[in-house]
Design brief:
Layout lengths: L4 E5 L7 H4 L7 E5 L7 H13 L4 E5 L5 H8 L7 H15 L6 H8 L8
Parallel strand pairs: 1-2, 1-3
C-alpha cells in the first residue's frame, strides 16, 4: 500500500471514499467511525499513516443526514455504547446551535475542522 491521503469518514454505508474520490485499493488510508469522532485510537491510526506510510494529506469527509448528529441534536438518551458516539458529537451540535441555518448541517461541518493535534 502507498496511500497519499488519510480519510476520516463516517461509517455510514453510503459514504465510500474510494468511489467518491475515484481512487483504487491502496491509494487511501480510510478510517471509518460513526460521526467522524476523534479518540486516541483514531489519532493513533492517523499518526501511523502519517509516520509509517508517509501520507501527505489528512481529510475529514462528512456527509448529509448523519445519523449520529441527528440523534445528538434530539437530546434524547440512547442505549448501549451508542451513547458514547452521541456524547462525542454533542460538542459539535452545541457549537452549531450558535450558528444561523440548519442545525444538523452546521453540526456536521463542526465535526471536521482540524485542530492541530495531529
Amino acid at each position: 500500500q502507498n496511500p497519499f491521503a488519510v480519510i476520516l469518514c463516517c461509517s455510514d454505508s453510503r459514504v465510500a471514499p474510494e468511489i467518491i474520490l475515484d481512487q483504487g485499493i491502496g491509494d487511501l488510508f480510510v478510517i471509518r467511525v460513526a460521526g467522524n469522532i476523534i479518540n486516541d485510537e483514531i489519532l493513533g491510526s492517523i499518526e501511523f499513516s502519517r509516520t509509517k506510510l508517509q501520507t501527505k494529506l489528512i481529510m475529514v469527509l462528512g456527509h448529509q443526514h448523519c445519523g449520529a448528529i441527528i440523534e445528538a441534536s434530539k437530546s434524547t438518551e440512547v442505549t448501549g455504547h451508542i451513547q458514547s458516539v452521541i456524547n462525542a458529537v454533542t460538542p459539535a451540535v452545541q457549537q452549531a446551535e450558535k450558528l444561523p441555518g440548519d442545525l444538523v448541517d452546521n453540526a456536521i461541518r463542526e465535526t471536521g475542522p482540524y485542530d492541530g493535534t495531529y
